[in-house]
Amino acid sequence: MTGIENTTLYNEDMKGISTDNASFEFFRKNDVLYVDKTEFIYKLLCAWPRRFFFVSRPRRFGKSLFCNSLESLFKGEKELFKGLYIYDKYDFKPYPVLHFDFNNMDADSIEDFIKALKGKILLQAGNAGIDIDSSYGPAMMFEMLIERLYRRDGEIVIIQDEYDAPLTSAAIGNPEMAEGIRKTLNSFYATIKNKAGMIRFCFITGVVKLSNLSIFSAMNNLVDLSMDKEFAGAFGYTDEELDEYFGEGIDEYLEANPGKYKSREEFR
């Protein structure tokens, strides 16, 4: 499986290729090449009653784009999926979506982290038009947001990208802060388990394997897809996808750089 490198392959007859934008809408509206991963989304939707999923992959393997495509799907943005595998297989019923991204949550103390986490919750609440009391801790604020959104709009969808980013950065040289973040996140994610009856779908990504951190100890309903062969192709690019979507561009790159690589296989 190949990650998404900082390489641009483009000619006048090919679609543009973006490696620095994880917006599904951007890909679909700007004629940017999108490798269709929606068959894997469809498989997740067909896994009912399983609906709480986790996957770990290295950075730059397309996790954020996958999360963003899930958000568009659950918001009912059907036209963005025209021409893709899932387009005529799903009803695109809209759900309220809470999409958290924990990238770039730099904090110098546990207090800074809690403030940043509360800010993420308040941002989602504001986007949804829900008022919550910021004087409470993150777990209680998250619980209030889920309950009030459910009462108003019905079942909700929760998408969490890079769950472990704050913890892995804090763990370097500050084990006490890392432990404080771990406990805070444990309470945060316990809310998802406690409110499972209000949640239509939950998808969580990260770099660190599920078993390596005890953050999700309360979420015994979480299905780990990280080593599931059926979903191995959901992230990164397979050899077949490289040939189908990028073959022409790779060949032109090899022709323009003679001697650098002998073949497609060596280029990979």
Walk me through the structure:
The protein has 268 residues and is an alpha/beta fold. The protein has 2 domains: 36-228, P-loop containing nucleotide triphosphate hydrolases (Rossmann fold), CATH 3.40.50.300; 237-268, no CATH class. It is 41% helix and 10% strand. The protein is globular. The N and C termini lie close together (10 Å).
Please give the structural blueprint.
Layout: H1 24-29, H2 38-45, E1 52-56, H3 63-74, E2 97-101, H4 110-128, H5 138-153, E3 156-161, H6 165-170, H7 175-194, E4 199-206, E5 223-224, H8 239-256, H9 264-267
Parallel strand pairs: 1-4, 1-5, 2-3, 3-4
Helix pairs in contact: 4-5, 5-7
Shape summary = globular
Helix content: 40-55%
Distance between the termini: 10 Å
Q: Which ranges are low-confidence, i.e. pLDDT below 50, for 5 or more consecutive residues? A: 2-12
Strand arrangement within the widest β-sheet reads 2-3-4-1-5
Strand content: 5-15%
What is the β-strand count? 5
Number of helical runs?
9
**If you consult CATH, what is the topology of the largest domain?**
Rossmann fold
Order of helices and strands: HHEHEHHEHHEEHH
Radius of gyration: 20 Å
Largest sheet: 5 strands, parallel
What name goes with the CATH superfamily of the largest domain? Answer: P-loop containing nucleotide triphosphate hydrolases
What is the residue-mean pLDDT, rounded to a whole number?
A: 87
Total tally of structural domains:
2
